Target: Transposase, IS66 family
Amino acid sequence: MPVQEEILHSPDRCRCCGTPFPADAPTKGYNGRYALDVVAPTSGSPGLEVRHTKHVYLQRQCSCGHWTHAEPGRCAENTDWQVELTEWHLAGPMLVALICALSLRQRVSRRGVQEFLADWLGVSLSIAAIHQCLHEAGRAVAPVIERDIVPLIREAELLHVDETGWKEGNQLLWLWVFTCTTATLFAIGRRSRRMLHKILGEAFVGWLMSDGFWAYRDYDRRLRCLAHLIRKAHGLDQSLDPLARPFGAATLALFEDLLQQVYQAREGPQPPADLYQKNRGKLDAFNDLCVDHWDCAHEKTRQLAREFTHDWEAIWAVLEFPRLPITNNWAEQALRHWVISRRISQGTRTEQGSLAFALLVSVIETCRKRGVSPWPYLAQVVQQRRKGEPAPVLPEPAPAP
Ligand SMILES: [Zn+2]
Model:
């Protein structure tokens, strides 16, 4: 591919004594590198343009005798990462963002990305180089997650959390998602209390909407997704088992009655009446029914009865606070795309790969939640971080149309 542009970099001051070089100080070649990048379409210029640039690094001699040379940017070493974050890499920041978009949003395999770049852009990159771009982008955004996303998650008034199985090499792990109104955080790890505490901290005081995993019980203000419980009750109601059916039917009838009241309370005067107190009699009777089925011979009935008993407060919190959500749709929606990715890619292969994946996906989903495109931002982060500079702040939510 012909080089379209040559950019000269010369040192502006002596690295030994600090004396600035005069603008016309003589220079001598030191070394150089090639960079391939894409120029993203703008409203005035549609289409994707590829640019091949040669960067030449020059050196100058100071009156003190010392030779100083300009050099490509490089982020200080970080033992958490094997990949380097540096301008020495062939792929420019926007090309790195394009590779992330193809791989993560479009769910194209590494080989598919390679084929697409070669066939449509005339850019030939090795599989290893594509892999390196994804890891480098993951490393580049790591401080953004810590600085701009984690605090929003930990301080959220209402947080939806969910987890789904995830393969990392031969290990069975979990892909966790935490999402609030303005941010979404992903993490890959074990399904354990330690993992949960590592992310949420122990001081989380918001409402936590989750499934029935026991470690969530450490948090006081909990909500359960009622859609899941209703689905289970339906299953029992439809079964042929004489023990299951009446329990399923009673559960469904209670939900129908109470949810009707929740919807009405949302429309009615504020603050709404305490529906828990109002329905005390029905709830006490249902609690007795759950206790009666604690040792039920039918397994799924027994499990559901115990689930109600264990999570009683979390399940019925919405009666006291009817404005709170009754399903975990936010978290399920945030996971949906990545559940399909998992089917296609069979998960990630290494710990480093999982980390890069979770970090990038957190930035992508947070930008999507905010109604802004993640790609120009991602390119900007890679560009700044390769120079050793801090990452720019995540884009604010787009104004409502
Ligand atoms: Zn000098």
In short: The longest strand covers residues 49-61.
